[in-house]
Design goal:
This protein has eight helices and six strands. It has 202 residues and is of the alpha/beta class. It has one domain: Uracil-DNA Glycosylase, subunit E, CATH 3.40.470.10. A six-stranded mixed beta sheet has the order 1-3-2-4-6-5, sandwiched between helices. Strand 5 and strand 6 form a beta hairpin.
């Protein structure tokens, strides 16, 4: 990839035909949030709303994610949201290994642009294709992984929280740990004394 700046990178992604998903997509879904951000949030792949709008996490699960991030005091300047694949798999199926592999160079370059040291992986598919781990997300969510200077936290995908409200509390705990790590690494300032993330808002 010979992109010299972020705009060229996004244009290159938008013209990508490395896998069969290019034939059925409406839009290439690259990112939203801040280009450079202390937190990188990685999901599975675009859904129907994302494919239509060209932005990740803008459907119901995205609204829930935004609510949680806002309740934690994390605004769009603090995170960069993307997916394992940038084109919608037909029928919202999971990306295949070949599709994820075709998109891997884009994701690797995106991480370099974002400069994030903390990475939140949403769901088992993001965990599998980002780390190579095939364990169930329930067994590993909330457990930090440190790799090459990155701090990686697996957690539930917001779509799962929409199906099972009981899992919102563990997700909130994971997000609280992410905020604490961001503060520890100097990525964001601590909240003023006496203030705390508003769990009731989530």
């Amino acid at each position: 990839m010979q992109d010299r700046n972020w705009s060229e990178f996004v244009a290159a992604c938008s013209a990508c035909t490395r896998c069969e998903l290019a034939a059925t997509r409406r839009n290439v879904v690259v990112w939203r949030g801040a280009v450079v951000a202390p937190l990188l949030i990685v999901g599975e792949g675009p859904g129907a709303s994302e494919d239509e709008q060209g932005l990740p996490f803008v459907g119901r699960s995205g609204e829930l994610l935004d609510t949680a991030l806002t309740a934690q005091g994390l605004d769009p300047s603090t995170y960069h949201i993307c997916n394992i694949v940038k084109c919608r798999p037909p029928g919202n199926r999971q990306p295949t290994p070949a599709e994820a592999e075709a998109c891997r160079p884009w994701l690797r370059r995106q991480l370099q642009y974002a400069g994030s040291r903390v990475i939140l992986l949403l769901g088992a598919t993001a965990l599998r294709y980002f780390t190579g781990e095939t364990v169930g997300i329930t067994k590993v969510r909330g457990i930090w992984r440190e790799s090459r200077g990155y701090w990686i936290m697996p957690s539930y995908h917001p779509a799962y929280l929409l199906r099972d409200r009981r899992q919102r509390e563990p997700f909130w705990q994971d997000l609280t740990a992410v905020r604490a790590k961001l503060e520890e690494l100097g990525g964001i300032p601590p909240l003023p004394t006496g203030e705390a993330p508003d769990a009731a808002a989530f």
